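Researcher: Re-running this chain for the archive, since the previous output was lost when a drive failed. Same request as before.
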Amino acid sequence: MDIETVWRNYNEDLRKIEANLHENLKSQVPIISQIGNHLLRSGGKRLRPLLVILSSRLCRYNGDVDIYLAGIVEFIHTASLLHDDVIDGAEIRRGKPVANSVWGNEASILVGDYLYSKALKLAVGLKNQRVMDTLSEATTSMSEGQIIELLKINDPDITEKDYLKMVEAKTALLISACCRVGAIISGIEKKKEDALATYGLNLGMAFQLADDVLDYRADEVKLGKSLGKDLDEGKITLPLIHLLKRGKPEEVEGVKRIIRTDGFRSEDLEYILSLMNKYDSLGYCLDRARDYLENAKESMMVFEDTPQRDALFAVADYIILRDR
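Model: Regenerated structure tokens:
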């Protein structure tokens, strides 16, 4: 099974989730709906909602709470994007103007706060304490990850270990939570619930590492942002960490000077890309991503061979093959 088959097979569920998202964005304050809809219409793949659906169906859940939950996790993700764009000073996301460039930073931050609050309010309405605990822990970790990332801006001394901890907090734990809540509502045994959460955690780690690679080699039109944007924002991601570890002393010093300079020239990016090619830093990063994906698939072996498990494998394959 490939990812296109998965999207097609679950298209009706994703359509219901989309309707749910727009319904829950209705507010007496127009700017909330305007900013929320701006992000929801920006072309996201709805990976996190899909994982809620796939996880619940793998566990043979047959109600409609998974649709509701899928909307909740997408609200949490959307809120994080609003905050990220303000912090990063971003101008483009998925090829379109970011919300803060249209409505301003203050409005974007406040609507992000609203979406976090709305998501948790909707979760409380489920009256399932374990779901609430899982989502609350994930959102708390995301905030911690965002703060750590901010503190590490332009810091060439960040270690791979510290970086991976940040990725886990900022990205992977929400994806893990998507899989766990799908299992929780099904009432499946704890062993299988934990297996799904492990799958999601490894998938989330691989997702971010693949994204790190895309920032240095993707087609800018498809990616929807400028090549080397992470570097321009002072973000030290795994390819750069690997280069700083493997490069010759004079090369490392040159890279550090670029990192510590506000903004960079095209020739600076070309220099760093040439060194990444020399030391195969992007290949190293992709290999780490593949390791995480193998761990994700291995965790799924406690489940029977079903179309739902095949779909989760297809999602894992998609993570490494995507171009944006």
